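Ticket #4471: structure export looks truncated?
Reporter: QA, pipeline team
Priority: medium

Steps to reproduce: submit the single chain below to the structure queue and open the exported record.
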Amino acid sequence: MSQLRQQGLVRFDFLDGALPGRANPTDIDQAIERNGYFLFLECKRPRQAVSTGQRIFFDRLVAGPRRIDVVIVQGNPPDDITAWAPWGSELRATNTKQFRATVRRWYERASQQRVAA
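Actual output as written to the record:
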């Protein structure tokens, strides 16, 4: 199989032609699972938009079970986070320390939950 990473960027071109129409995979920058609850983090540089395909993917992802959260993180992680928002909400100003606390609270809530097997 050809190398999937080149200069630190994930490449999906090995799937070219494998999917019909304009279907393509999307990437998610980070994911956390705790007790069947999922937090997906998508990081964007300031003024970098979420693509149409990724927007459709996130809309459908959060429309599913309430155990799935998608968060957009803006800035230059890990050291310079400037804003964040749950998917579908307006960005709110933050910093790295505050955002870390937000993720910690999500994890603590998920730790108290149980999902039926």
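Status: closed, not a bug. The export was complete when the record was re-opened. Leaving a note from the reviewer for reference: Helices lie at 52-62, 96-111.
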